[in-house]
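Hi! If you just cloned this repository, the fastest way to understand the data is to look at a raw example. We've pasted two of them here, unedited. The first protein comes first, obviously.
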Amino acid sequence: MHVAGRLTTLGWTMLALYLLAALLVFRAAAASTSPNSRAMDHIWISLGIILAALGLNKEIDLQTVLIEIGRRVARNEHLFAYRLELYLVFFLGFILAMTALFAAVMLRFSADVGKFARQFPFAASGLALICTYIVIRAAVIDNVNVMLGLDLKQIPFLWLLEAGGLLLIMIQALRTVATS
């Protein structure tokens, strides 16, 4: 979605979808009228913040900045010969950190998250698709996937996971606003 550090048409489209999804999710949170839905409102707002951050990251491309910093450190510390191993450690660390964050959220808010998933299945499914896309993209960064014996770059239309997830979330947000 980037060519020479600039967003492609697909990248700009995904950025727009993320921001539109975030706006619709914030609208769904604001449209809630039930006094018992405070926990659901918090989840909607958290989802909106996450979507906005992921959308802005399309332009910022923070992962590329982090990889470049890692390369510079590896060169300065004479670790560049171990770059493949360092990439693998970085990827596994990313997966471990995301798993720990997910576990912490589920332990703290498991009842609310479960209720949200049952009450808003399109949004939950959309978020699962986006998370799947993120994990696959993280594995593709600098060929970690090849080191793991996979060739994930050959998956055609990988962006459809991300776009499909966003569309599911937008549909759920629109349905929520319409029924409020």
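Ok, and the second one:
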Amino acid sequence: MNTNLFALAALLLPLSLAGQDGPPKEAGRRAPDLVELVTLDPRIRLEIRYATATNEFGKPFYKEARAFLQRPAAEALARVNASLKAKGYGLLVYDGYRPWRVTKEFWDLTPEGKKIFVANPKNGSRHNRGGAVDLTLYALDTGKEADMGGAYDEMSKRSYVTFENGPDEALERREVLRKAMEVEGFFPYPWEWWHFDWKDWRDYPVLDVPFEEIPKKENQR
């Protein structure tokens, strides 16, 4: 059995949970093939906020600071990173694949008036399928995170893709990121400038595999 398909077996465990205590049951999906982003392109930088207490919830949710996407999405993201080099930028990833149980925690911890910023665990999320990524730009010359006119996971109107009241330079960087991502099949989530969905995210099942159970590989090209 291809070790990249380990999630098929692991997926069966959480599906035995009753009701909304477990992820939705699904059939007819593509076999998962989660790829660790830095094994495709080590120039992609990581700042996995949910592996630390530096996030809007003030607590860590992951035991390891790693980022994954389904293989076609991961390969497309590596191409995005390569394309940005000419503009002086690289990609800084905050989050990729997210186990379902973490989405459930987010939902339970988020006030009713702010739930537009989190996914309903009843249906599972794009992140749970390995088909979404949260990211920004960093400057290649300084290594510093770029000013995008709003913070990651900020629950305000500044996070909306349609927000127009920020500094011109920051809004221009949002456009640079959006255009580069769209060329490779990623599309922005309207309420979060940093969140992009892979065009085929619907093809994959909701997963609940913790990072520490995903085998580490040196290179997955």
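That's it. A detail worth noticing about the second one: Strands lie at 34-36, 45-46, 68-70, 89-95, 132-139, 186-189, 192-198.
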